[in-house]
């Protein structure tokens, strides 16, 4: 059998080496704790599950949904953007429901990229932007991020040739994996650059509402005129601990939303309606559940930052996202080697920064989505490792 080139070109599984190590450790009977997974351990709020159960019993919700999502859901998304971001959207033309934002991200290049076209992606970054671009026949040009530049791209670094071929500029703030933030003035700069070069901005706002210390993350659509060139992916996954229910949205430029709708109507039949009903309840809720989740993540963040500092890692307390991104201790240069040594000696899995791109080398990422007692156990082991004690 000959598989298509796009499958053959898929990069190897991100954490293949680490997964092998985990398997080996587990085979030796060692209790491995992974700080690699970014999937909330906290359950979906119970009243949302109750709404889902109720909606599942209604036969109206047993039939094919529409790809673009129920008008009631799109209206609820519109209300969310109005109250949360002060952004007014036309729910008929500027909002579409998604089966998780990953689905929309993966389909967007099919709307905008032809063979030879370019996506501009940040390095380090969420891997789906690059793979989805490749599926559409395009290729990605990486904009290297650095600690010195606050993990923001510098548009002056884009060559005029790449700017001419570029069709999509992918941004993601609050950022995975670095936890970096973008200000409105950065978004203004991005919008001005995109307008000048006729490029669509796809802003991934998956971590909009996982924030700490009172920080409020902006939408790129808060920039005047951004809707002329931008769409934004937003998701209920992390905001409401709903990763398993697969519900998200793309909002923004009507022409791009229309193209995405047309692609999707040929690929999927939308989200189960009972889940859409649950999403409407979530979006119209007061923000109590979000705030109480963030208090828990913030407490975990504080403990994690303290222990990472004991390990000699360079770390700033992130104001958003589910991750702590930390520079390797002095004398260490290879993040995969470092993570390998840590897992060997402690059974605790850290993600090497190089898994997110070359510019992530020299850093590791840990996730805060582990129950308090497991996270405590992992941090305790790391602390003992930092003191030079034998852990396993
Ligand atoms: C940066 C980023 N974007 C998008 C997603 C996808 O989220 P979902 O498909 O659950 O909405 C993730 C998931 O981890 C992510 O980290």
Give a description of the structure.
By secondary structure, the chain is an alpha/beta fold. The chain folds into two domains: 5-43 and 289-386, Alpha-Beta Complex (Aspartate Aminotransferase, domain 1); 63-284, Type I PLP-dependent aspartate aminotransferase-like (Major domain) (Aspartate Aminotransferase, domain 2, 3-Layer(aba) Sandwich). The chain has helices at 5-8, 16-27, 46-56, 71-85, 101-112, 128-135, 160-165, 184-197, 236-239, 254-265, 273-284, 288-310, 335-346, 372-386, and strands at residues 33-34, 95-98, 118-123, 139-144, 166-171, 200-204, 230-235, 248-252, 314-315, 323-327, 348-349, 351-352, 363-367. Strands 2-8-7-6-5-3-4 form a seven-stranded mixed beta sheet, sandwiched between helices. Helix 6 links the parallel strand 3 (118-123) and strand 4. Bound molecules: pyridoxal-5'-phosphate. Pyridoxal-5'-phosphate is lined by residues 38, 100-102, 126, 172, 176, 204, 206, 235, 237, 243, 248.
């Amino acid at each position: 059998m000959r598989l298509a080139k796009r499958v053959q070109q898929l990069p190897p599984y991100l954490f293949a080496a680490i997964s092998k190590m985990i398997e080996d450790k587990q085979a030796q009977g060692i209790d491995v704790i992974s700080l690699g997974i970014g999937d909330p351990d906290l359950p979906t709020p119970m009243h949302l599950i109750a709404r889902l159960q109720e909606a599942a019993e209604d036969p109206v919700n047993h039939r094919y949904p529409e790809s673009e999502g129920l008008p009631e859901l799109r209206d609820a998304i519109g209300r969310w953007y109005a109250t949360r971001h002060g952004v007014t959207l036309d729910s008929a033309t500027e909002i579409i429901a998604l089966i998780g934002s990953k689905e929309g991200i993966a389909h967007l290049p099919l709307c905008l990229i032809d063979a030879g076209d370019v996506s501009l992606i940040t390095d380090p970054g969420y891997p789906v932007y690059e793979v989805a671009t490749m599926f559409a026949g395009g290729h990605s040009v990486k904009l290297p991020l650095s600690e010195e530049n606050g993990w923001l791209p510098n548009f002056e670094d884009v060559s005029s040739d790449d700017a001419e071929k570029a069709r999509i500029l992918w941004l993601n703030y609050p950022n995975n994996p670095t936890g970096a933030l973008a200000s409105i003035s950065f978004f203004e700069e991005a919008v001005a650059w995109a307008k000048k070069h006729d490029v669509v901005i796809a802003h991934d706002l998956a971590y909009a509402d996982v924030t700490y210390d009172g920080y409020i993350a902006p939408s790129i659509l808060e920039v005047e005129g951004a809707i002329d060139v931008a769409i934004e992916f937003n998701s209920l996954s992390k905001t409401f601990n709903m990763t398993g229910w697969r519900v998200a949205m793309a909002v923004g430029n009507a022409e791009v939303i229309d193209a995405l709708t047309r692609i999707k109507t040929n690929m999927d039949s939308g989200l189960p309606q009972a889940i859409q009903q649950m999403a409407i309840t979530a979006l119209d809720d007061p923000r109590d559940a979000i705030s109480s989740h963030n208090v828990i993540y913030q407490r975990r963040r504080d403990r994690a930052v303290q222990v990472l500092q004991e390990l000699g890692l360079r770390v700033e307390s992130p104001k958003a996202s589910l991750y702590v991104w930390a520079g390797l201790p002095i004398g260490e240069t290879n993040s995969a080697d470092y993570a390998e040594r840590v897992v060997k000696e402690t059974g605790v899995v850290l993600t090497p920064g190089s898994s997110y791109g070359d510019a992530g080398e020299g850093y590791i990422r840990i996730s805060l989505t582990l129950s308090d007692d497991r996270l405590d156990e992992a941090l305790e082991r790391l602390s003992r490792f930092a003191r030079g004690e034998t852990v396993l």
